[in-house]
Amino acid sequence: MKALVKRNFEPGVSLMEVEKPTPSKNEALIKVSYSSICGTDLHIYKSDVWARSRIKPPLITGHEMGGIVVETGSEVTQVKVGDRVAVETHIVDWSCTLCRQGKAHLCSSTRILGIDCNGSFAEFVSIPETNLIVNSPIVPDEFLPLEEPLGNAVHAASITQVSGKNVLIVGGGPLGLLLLLVLKGYGASQVIVSELNDYRLTLAKNLGADLVIKPDELNLLNIAKEATRGEGVDVSFDMSGHPLGINDALKALKPGGHMVFFGLPTSDISLNITDDIIFKGITLHGVIGRQMFTTWYEVLSLLENKKIDLSPLITHRFPLSEIDKAMEVMSQGRSGKIILNPEL
Amino acid sequence: MKALVKRNFEPGVSLMEVEKPTPSKNEALIKVSYSSICGTDLHIYKSDVWARSRIKPPLITGHEMGGIVVETGSEVTQVKVGDRVAVETHIVDWSCTLCRQGKAHLCSSTRILGIDCNGSFAEFVSIPETNLIVNSPIVPDEFLPLEEPLGNAVHAASITQVSGKNVLIVGGGPLGLLLLLVLKGYGASQVIVSELNDYRLTLAKNLGADLVIKPDELNLLNIAKEATRGEGVDVSFDMSGHPLGINDALKALKPGGHMVFFGLPTSDISLNITDDIIFKGITLHGVIGRQMFTTWYEVLSLLENKKIDLSPLITHRFPLSEIDKAMEVMSQGRSGKIILNPEL
Amino acid sequence: MKALVKRNFEPGVSLMEVEKPTPSKNEALIKVSYSSICGTDLHIYKSDVWARSRIKPPLITGHEMGGIVVETGSEVTQVKVGDRVAVETHIVDWSCTLCRQGKAHLCSSTRILGIDCNGSFAEFVSIPETNLIVNSPIVPDEFLPLEEPLGNAVHAASITQVSGKNVLIVGGGPLGLLLLLVLKGYGASQVIVSELNDYRLTLAKNLGADLVIKPDELNLLNIAKEATRGEGVDVSFDMSGHPLGINDALKALKPGGHMVFFGLPTSDISLNITDDIIFKGITLHGVIGRQMFTTWYEVLSLLENKKIDLSPLITHRFPLSEIDKAMEVMSQGRSGKIILNPEL
Amino acid sequence: MKALVKRNFEPGVSLMEVEKPTPSKNEALIKVSYSSICGTDLHIYKSDVWARSRIKPPLITGHEMGGIVVETGSEVTQVKVGDRVAVETHIVDWSCTLCRQGKAHLCSSTRILGIDCNGSFAEFVSIPETNLIVNSPIVPDEFLPLEEPLGNAVHAASITQVSGKNVLIVGGGPLGLLLLLVLKGYGASQVIVSELNDYRLTLAKNLGADLVIKPDELNLLNIAKEATRGEGVDVSFDMSGHPLGINDALKALKPGGHMVFFGLPTSDISLNITDDIIFKGITLHGVIGRQMFTTWYEVLSLLENKKIDLSPLITHRFPLSEIDKAMEVMSQGRSGKIILNPEL
Questions:
Q1: Predicted confidence (pLDDT) per residue in D68-98, tens digit
Q2: Where is the Enoyl reductase (ER) domain (chains A, B, C, D) (predicted)?
Q3: How far lies D118's CA from each of D6, D20, D91, D123, D274, in Å?
Q4: Which among C166, C186, C304 is the nearest to D163, CB-wise?
Q5: Closest alpha carbon to A284 in A250, A233, A307
């Protein structure tokens, strides 16, 4: 089959013919319909410091995906050939104390599709049946790969009440924009998006942001205060991982507010804990992955009932063979979500 | 000034000239712009069993209201003449252990406007300043009286997560319909409304209910299960107070679900606690009033940012002098919210 | 091996020689050290209405147990021969939407040890490895069978805050007394126990109840109010399933309080929802089983660190052969927990 | 009357005769029975950087106190002459949006007794009646001043579940030790205390710490892991404000754990947000003051029912005139709580 393989730590990936995988007894073989590109895929593509320390080439990369079950292992009972599925990308051990407490998304043995084992930028991929999420026909094919990052956003948005609240998103990349869609759908009173990149700011505005701020031209804190009778926002989400962004997100909060850490800083971050956290009685949440599988049921429910429309967020579509062009667009921040089609 | 006075326990109320009230030192005098009619007002109008046991005529009835501050008591500091205000109708003591724990809505000394003291079906009414909610010019005058019952709905909707969930409302009266607007605004995946009255069912459909059920023709439980892959709803709200409605709302829940009791039963209700509550691990919430004043800030935020449009729910407008006509329409269940105008 | 078998619906059980079970690939064979007797075992012993509708003889009864792993199925990886284990008695499917959301204790396919399949009143029993809880040597052998009902009590006590609160337990049977131990350990300010049986009242007092009430002689509500400055208790637990007990537990609550339904009523219960639930803003929780396996880790932690001493609750010990005597004592309510030893 | 006055920013305070205060209409005059010394008092005594930026001499310092109502203002209704009271030291405006949402402890207009207005190191002090907490005769006089910092500890301990959990306290000063007493009382499975000072470590051990660690001799993280089967603690409390202490507290957590920030850092703190917060799904809570007045009712309930014994924590008693000796002992960390008696 065709697959995009990270063969070594030179930049880029190679479109190659590789052997089609065979599902083990608890796995199903999935014919990939679409993948979408995650920031992680770009890190691997570029062979950055993180990628060099984490992955072991050769590796088929990619993890946001949808497809059709075409073969099932001998002990598979929960899916059948023909099922249309999205995929939870964290493969966990189900036996550690965290998994046994309903915190599988924090399992310390987690292996991630396309990072720790072969992924979805290919024609086929074999996946444990417990990780497969059967979708109703109502959900369009192109939405399936987006369910995984949408789950991140739903998980983040569910960690504290956002309905009827003023919220700030720092960082309008694809995940920040997915979060924007979720927060609008959940009835946040105002969603303010802070982002440097003009393309993304425009996209945020088009997706319904109540206020967009470009923090290099304007003072984020003043604007956030002004939009909230001088009080500050109820909830802020850092999707940037940037030191200034994180501190802005924290300082923009009103006393008693909640902050979500989502974007991954690449180095230690310095915080004014006394003034910005203790005196204001702030609660902070580190958010990773999706709740397995509470979040997924919510994602399915939102999409099946058309409460969230992902279409305007899908800005580009490429065949696997044009991965270099796709990564170039993504690298420049001139995209929402990019879909990869293995068949083209 | 003109006022609708409940003079004794004969049915009805009388439009009379009465003395204009004088604000005490912590009160403000409000010129009423609009009132809306609550089910409680109808109970008092009819002098039913509850009304006879609770109110002490003569009494100016009415409590859902908006107006303008025209005079302030000597120690009033938080509002000023000209402020446009809605009113929290629970007048509490602020000194009992419940008030001192942020549970003023449960204060055991609560006095309610238009029930325990003179109310808003009049040209003027005097109100403690702590109960006044100053509104921004963005919110239309006619919405102000509806903020109080909207607060009930927001309080009920905030008691457990509804975003991304399947919910059932049993009882599509004005409060059930306000709740419908809130649940839609908060991103519930599906809102199912069960109601006997055709007028209200049509209104529910127009206001965005995903599914409406007339339980005398159809089997509520089967329909609710069918709409939820056989699982049952995540959250159900009883707004009816009816024995069958309450039991339906409970049985329609999936295991682990939440139920809100809002409608007031007039007699004891028999429940299958073993099968419907314990074996299913259900959580039930008795909900009364609004959180003072957390709920109000959320109401203001939703209306100022136009996240909820109350217009389609306002179906009738009458002058005070046509109270009999208004009560007749309401009695028949052929209305959404009815607005009373003291000036007409 | 020896086992107590419910052969048919005549009252009682028979001590018989039966075939030793063989573990399937995901099971381990456990040599039972001790079992303890649950109220359910008494229902089955007596062949009451519930038992006749639920079990299918012949059946080895019993489910509260501890023992040693003596053989493991071919795919067992989490326990090994020699491990000393307690047992989660709910055997669930791990694949339904409830199990996949961390609510396995609400799985609709649950099979219960000693009710739906052969149980622990025997020399050996075969158990799925996921249901085995390996214990540290610090925990005494006799405590192992009590971990399962202790888990019920911990689950009930964890559903709302009890530390620093005034709480009421209605029903001082073995589970009510385990709950008493947990509530005392968790720093409840006052634990009030209401119970008719003198033996149990004395045991409750000895186990540390701050106040014991015999509701046929005294007025429970007056006493509960008096003990709480007239306010009522913060949390009440009904462990009785009795109509009067449930209503007392509800009425004894202060506004904003929480009630836990644990005892199983045998018929519908009539409640004053308006006055006792809605006007008081009460939250009610149906509690069943234990959280799998969050509760178990807490149980282990409490016992390993000697925060709860179960010794004074173990009042009787019998060999399997004296089951009739054990059931007689239990039937009269003249016991705490009764231990059965298969070896004697 | 006699009072300890901070006259200017020279180190120390002066015992002086000053005018006895007169209560305003909403205040009561309190004859101080005992005060206790807070770390803040030491900062003011020493005139450190923070003190110089915050207080405005001349000022009577001190805020942890108990006493007797000896005179009441004209509008006081909730206390009467002879009442024995403890004091909430945050004087708030009750009218800002935070106060009106039950978050008075976060009121941005807060004035603190003995910092922003005259305090309790005196024979008399005048206090708003809403800040007075009437105590039952069961609670000893010397415990009254300790209720305020005990409230801090109760507030911190109530922010997430600690019963049945493994917890770490970093910093065994007086507040850390009060927290230790609360956590033990609430049934934490293990309380580990990390502290450099030998006197405090011994006191922690005597007060019931399950494990005490001196982090300069031993590796805190290894010990915390070892005490928790390699998993890490469920909850950690930083009471030190120290950069190393905060990072230790964070790194000692298991995935999904909770951390409380209580000790005030004097400069920005650098955190590894990616590894220590996001990947582990940690929740962090900034905690300040006490919930007004939910925490106080819990404090009263714990003390009246003798669930927490403060006696072993009171290590020194001095008259006002020996303030220099008292501050010297405290400065060296050779004390638990120190009581000041205005009468000696």
A1: 999 999 999 999 999 999 999 999 999 999 9
A2: 12-340
A3: 10, 11, 12, 12, 45
A4: C186
A5: A250
* Selected residue of A278, A282, A285, A291 to mutate for chain D interface (largest D Cβ count, 10 A): A278
3-state secondary structure of C246: helix
Which residue in chain A is spatially nearest to B160 when comparing CA positions? A161
Residue A217 has pLDDT above 90, yes or no: no
- Domains D2-150+290-341 and D160-286 in one fold: no
Interface check for B134 against chain A (CB to CB < 8 A): the answer is no
List the subunits that have 3+ CB pairs under 8 angstroms with B.
Answer: A, C, D
- The β-bridge partners of B168 are B192, B236
- Is D106 within 8 Å of chain A by CB? yes
Q: Which of D152, D276, D278 to mutate to test the interface with A (most CBs of A within 10 A)?
A: D278
Chain C residues with CB under 8 Å of B266 CB are 274
Average pLDDT over chain B reads 97
Q: Is C283 a catalytic residue?
A: no
Helix (H, G, I), strand (E, B) or coil at C240: coil
Query: A43, A105, A258, A316: which one is catalytic?
Result: A43
How far is residue A262's CA from residue A175's CA, in Å, rounded to a whole number?
9
- Crossing angle (nearest 10°) for helices D147-157 and D174-185: 60
Q: How many CA atoms lie within 13 A of A254 on its CB side?
A: 22
Tokens of B343: 């000036």
User: In this structure, which CATH number among 3.30.70.600, 1.25.40.10, 3.60.15.10, 3.40.50.720 belongs to the domain C160-286?
Assistant: 3.40.50.720
> In chain B, which among 265-284 make CB contacts under 8 A with chain C?
265-266, 268-274, 277-284
Cα distances (angstroms) measured from residue B199 to each of A229, B183, B212: 41, 21, 12
- Which residue, among D233, D160, D240, has the nearest Cα to A284 in the 3D structure? D160
Say whether residue C150 is in contact with chain B using an 8 A CB cutoff: no
Which candidate, C69, C66, C29, C45, places its Cα nearest to that of C146? C66
Question: In this predicted structure, what is the pLDDT of residue B41?
Answer: 97
Q: Do C273 and B262 touch (CB under 8 A)?
A: no
| Superfamily of segment(s) D2-150+290-341 | Medium-chain alcohol dehydrogenases, catalytic domain (3.90.180.10)
Say how many residues make up chain D.
Answer: 344
User: Do residue C186 and residue D164 have CB atoms under 8 angstroms apart?
Assistant: yes
CA atoms within 13 A on the CB side of C227: 25
**Given pLDDT bands bounded at 50, 70 and 90, which one contains residue C344?**
low
pLDDT per position as a tens digit, B119-131 = 999 999 999 999 9
Which residues are within 8 A (CB) of A182 and not within 5 positions of it... i.e. 6 or more apart? A150, A153, A154, A156, A157, A302, A308
End-to-end CA distance of chain A: 13
List Cα–Cα distances, C46 to B215, C39, C51, C309, C329, in angstroms. Answer: 42, 11, 8, 31, 14
Chain-centroid distance, C-alpha D6: 21
**Which tokens is D156 given?**
């911190």
ipTM above 0.95, yes or no: yes
- Test the B interface: residue of C112, C266, C284, C285 with most B CBs within 10 Å: C284
Q: Are D180 and D169 in contact (CB under 8 A)?
A: yes
pLDDT digits (tens, 9 = 90+) for B77-91: 999 999 999 999 999
Residues 6+ apart with CB under 8 A from D334: D199
Say whether residue B218 is in contact with chain C using an 8 A CB cutoff.
no
Going by their DSSP bridges, the two strands B64-72 and B84-87 should be labelled as antiparallel
Domain ranges across chain B = 2-150+290-341, 160-286
* Spans of chain D, pLDDT less than 70: 344
